[in-house]
Design goal:
two-stranded antiparallel ribbon; mainly alpha; about 140 residues
């Protein structure tokens, strides 16, 4: 087996990690994925869908996710954007009652180092593979 494949991060469900978002381009590596790798000491592992409540909470605790910071390749976020957030920041918001919805298939297993799977599942917004079941 290729050694790179052995180190590939999986999602919190144990399957292949899916892309979180490309508009805006997210991820510690700005590749659309919440893979962390050894360089990401903050663990940008949780694929969260931004809500006004989450963004307001993050600003209140000193983590402004709305103001663009082009020098860091950060466009600024608006409600509805998918973004790989730091696991401890998401947990902090959860504890304050302001957790953002989570896309489990796009959330790195590394998030489980800080957040129990059951907690993430309470906020899941995954779309089933067969979206026809969503039609009335």
């Amino acid at each position: 087996m290729d050694p790179r494949q052995e180190r590939e991060e999986r999602n919190v469900l144990g399957a292949e990690l899916q892309p979180c978002g490309t508009d805006p381009m997210t991820g510690f590596h700005r590749d659309g994925s919440c893979r962390c790798g050894p360089e990401d000491i903050g663990l940008h592992a949780v694929c969260a869908v931004m809500t006004r409540e989450f963004l307001d909470h993050q600003r209140a605790v000193g983590n402004d996710l709305e103001t663009p910071r082009p020098e860091f390749g950060f466009p600024g976020l608006v409600p509805g954007d998918r973004w790989c957030v730091v696991a401890l920041r998401w947990l902090q918001a959860h504890q304050a009652g302001a957790a953002a919805p989570v896309v489990l298939s796009c959330t790195s297993e590394r998030a489980l180092e800080f957040i129990p799977l059951e907690m993430l599942q309470q906020h899941r917004v995954d779309v089933p593979e067969d979206a026809s079941s969503l039609e009335e």
